[in-house]
């Protein structure tokens, strides 16, 4: 089946990149049609999900503000097809697994530039606060934006984090917003955001935040003989974040921004609860800095260039008092640098046909104080040629990605260099006269290199690891209907994913050490469905609701393997979520529900590895106190895990029970 699909893909590539003769006869009849403005004003994100050739889910603006969430990871729980790996507590490390492909197959983009981590390929999404976030989006396959970088094509799935951009009324020169959160786990979380208008074309923004919490909470534990209630210790966190940016927009001809990001934290690593042991002394320090910029220039109506660049430095320090070396307690430090440059050309050949050529170069280097560390360096060169056809009832996009990876090390042997070509094909079609119903689908082939930890880390690395390849096929539909003051949208997708030599990371006795191995072959079949609606019940009552369901069968297909035909670790067959938000005058009520079905903690689907389903209910109420007429004081109360369910996302890492948060916000 895959061979047949490849042949179809090659044939369509030829049509798309050499299409002038084929489409010349349709140029007069297939003219661009302006989108109805009412859709964009009603819900821009939902309109994108309706017309996008790849499944897209977004939360933005007031939706993010009303969710019971502190970080980006918390917000992503409400998307279908995602498993959130949460190791417990407010300071717990949080990563995401999309469609059972593994965290390393998901690229995370911060204002259009990827957040890299050559060390382990994962991004701790718990570090990124929602306080400065305008929109969070998940694209399965890839985003269809033609001005995206080559890196955006180099992931099987992508998460886009769009931070807030200053917007002013004609007579405004600055905006100041202050807030504070407090509640369970000893949380103290003040924040400050400042927008300043330099002139009509240039503005600046500063966002800063502090998080301090002891992280202690009670949980239930059973060793099969007796049950006990214990307190989760060494789960504290102390962190602060600073973001500063300058934005320029010169009559939409020159658009640019420069952003500096700093994050510093110290946290405890509480570890797994095993053998009646409830306390772990390991500590982790993180310091992340990056400076990034992008610039777009439009030449007339047909040609544009976009330049992106970034320098990043990530430092981490790990202390383990349980391991004594000749120089004292085990203390490892890791420092990695990233240099990145991207250039994208887009050219509109015809009103309906756009070409894009993107070139990226990225260099990563890593140092450590470990004895005879390999000191790896990796240079990655990516080139993408993409073609996009956008007609009234049909959108087709194809791309071909060339990836070259070149490695060197100071000690031992480096991994082999790689050169791969990765094609993708996406479409969205309106099969009937009505624009309410549209079909979409894509085929995408991708690979990922083992990370520095996979290859070189002393306690984890496995030099026998093979690269990991994936192929995806997706077919779905979107149906939306305007019913007076109500908008209803239903989407559903079925997909099949093949992964060869899948690299799996399973946590050990603490969060910083893993066991890496090639699982062999994995095949995933799934269905994702979502129903969203929004509208008015009366003149004073607005509402929005969302219901999602995911079915995933992700099986080990390694020939001759001991776990052949069994579900891979931590992937539930059934999961879903529901949210309901209602506004009445200056009061907002919000309810959310998350469900994760049964799953297994190891490859063998046996009783000792079985994990029970879990679900949580969260509620919140927000009230605008009319103390000041123009700028009311906002007050919020959140109750998370309302019914105090005891559960674990990762085995032996218990999650908190019922918790509370109070929020106060005021904007000058």
TrEMBL record:
It is a multi-pass membrane protein. Residues 51-144 form the TonB-dependent receptor plug domain. It is found in: Cell outer membrane. It comes from the Bacteria. Keywords: Cell outer membrane, Membrane, Receptor, Signal, TonB box, Transmembrane, Transmembrane beta strand, Transport. InterPro entries: Beta-barrel_TonB, Beta-barrel_TonB_sf, Plug_dom, Plug_dom_sf, TonB-dep_rcpt-like. PROSITE patterns: TONB_DEPENDENT_REC_3. Its main location: membrane. It holds the Pfam family TonB_dep_Rec_b-barrel. Residues 1-24 form the signal peptide. Residues 236-642 form the TonB-dependent receptor-like beta-barrel domain. Belongs to the TonB-dependent receptor family. PANTHER family: HEMOGLOBIN AND HEMOGLOBIN-HAPTOGLOBIN-BINDING PROTEIN 1-RELATED (PTHR30069:SF29), TONB-DEPENDENT OUTER MEMBRANE RECEPTOR (PTHR30069). This is TonB-dependent receptor.
């Amino acid at each position: 089946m895959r061979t047949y699909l490849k042949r179809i893909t090659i044939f369509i590539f030829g049509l798309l990149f050499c299409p002038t003769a084929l489409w010349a006869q349709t140029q007069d009849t297939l003219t661009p049609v302006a989108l109805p403005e009412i859709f964009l004003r009603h819900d821009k994100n939902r309109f994108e999900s309706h017309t996008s050739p790849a499944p897209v889910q977004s939360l933005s603006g007031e939706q993010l503000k009303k969710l019971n969430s502190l970080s980006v990871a918390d917000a992503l729980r409400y998307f279908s097809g995602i498993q959130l790996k949460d190791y417990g507590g407010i300071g717990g490390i949080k990563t995401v697994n999309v469609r059972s492909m593994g965290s390393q197959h998901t690229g995370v983009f911060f204002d259009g530039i990827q957040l890299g981590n050559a060390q382990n390929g994962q991004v701790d999404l718990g570090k990124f606060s929602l306080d400065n976030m305008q929109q969070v989006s998940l694209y399965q396959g890839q985003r269809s934006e033609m001005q995206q970088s080559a890196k955006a094509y180099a992931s099987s799935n992508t998460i886009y984090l769009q931070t807030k951009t200053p917007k002013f009324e004609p007579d405004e020169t600055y905006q100041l917003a202050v807030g504070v959160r407090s509640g369970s786990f000893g949380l103290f979380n003040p924040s400050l955001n400042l927008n300043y208008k330099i002139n009509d074309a240039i503005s600046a923004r500063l966002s800063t935040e502090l998080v301090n919490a002891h992280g202690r909470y009670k949980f239930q534990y059973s060793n099969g003989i007796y049950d006990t209630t214990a307190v989760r210790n060494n789960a504290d966190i102390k962190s602060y974040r600073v973001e500063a940016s300058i934005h320029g927009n010169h009559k939409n001809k020159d658009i640019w921004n420069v952003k500096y990001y700093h994050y510093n934290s110290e946290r405890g690593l509480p570890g797994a609860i095993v053998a009646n042991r409830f306390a772990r002394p390991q500590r982790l320090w993180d310091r992340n800095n990056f400076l990034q910029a992008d610039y777009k220039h439009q030449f007339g109506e047909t040609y544009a260039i976009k330049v992106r660049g970034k320098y990043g430095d990530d430092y981490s320090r790990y202390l383990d008092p349980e391991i004594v070396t000749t120089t004292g307690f085990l203390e490892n430090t890791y420092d990695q640098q990233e240099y990145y440059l991207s250039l994208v050309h887009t050219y509109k050949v015809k009103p309906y046909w756009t070409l894009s050529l993107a070139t990226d170069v990225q260099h990563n280097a890593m140092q450590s104080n470990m004895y005879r560390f390999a000191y790896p360096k990796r240079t990655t060169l990516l080139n993408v040629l993409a073609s996009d056809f956008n007609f009234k009832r049909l959108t087709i996009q194809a791309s071909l990605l060339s990836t070259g990876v070149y490695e060197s090390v100071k000690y031992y042997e480096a991994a082999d260099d790689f050169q791969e070509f990765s094609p993708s094909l996406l479409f969205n079609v309106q099969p009937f006269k009505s624009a309410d119903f549209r079909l979409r689908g894509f085929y995408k082939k991708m690979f990922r290199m083992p990370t520095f930890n996979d290859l070189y880390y002393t306690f984890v690395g496995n030099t026998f690891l093979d690269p990991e390849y994936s192929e995806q096929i997706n077919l779905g539909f979107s149906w939306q209907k305007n019913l007076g003051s109500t908008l209803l949208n239903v989407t559903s997708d079925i997909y099949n994913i093949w992964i060869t030599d899948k690299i799996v990371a399973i946590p050990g006795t603490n969060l910083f050490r893993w066991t890496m191995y090639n699982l062999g072959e994995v095949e995933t079949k799934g269905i994702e469905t979502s129903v969203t609606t929004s509208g008015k019940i009366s003149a004073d009552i607005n509402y929005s609701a969302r219901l999602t369901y995911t079915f995933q069968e992700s099986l080990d297909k390694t020939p001759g393997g001991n776990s052949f035909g069994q579900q891979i670790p931590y992937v539930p067959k059934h999961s879903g979520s529901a949210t309901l938000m209602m506004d009445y005058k200056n009061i907002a009520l919000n309810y959310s529900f998350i469900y994760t079905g049964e799953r297994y903690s190891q490859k063998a689907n046996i009783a000792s590895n079985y994990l029970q389903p879990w679900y949580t209910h969260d509620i919140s109420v927000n009230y605008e106190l009319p103390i000041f007429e123009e700028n009311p004081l906002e007050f919020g109360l959140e109750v998370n895990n309302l019914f105090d369910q005891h559960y674990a996302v990762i085995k032996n890492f218990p999650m908190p029970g019922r918790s509370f948060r109070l929020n106060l916000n005021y904007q000058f």
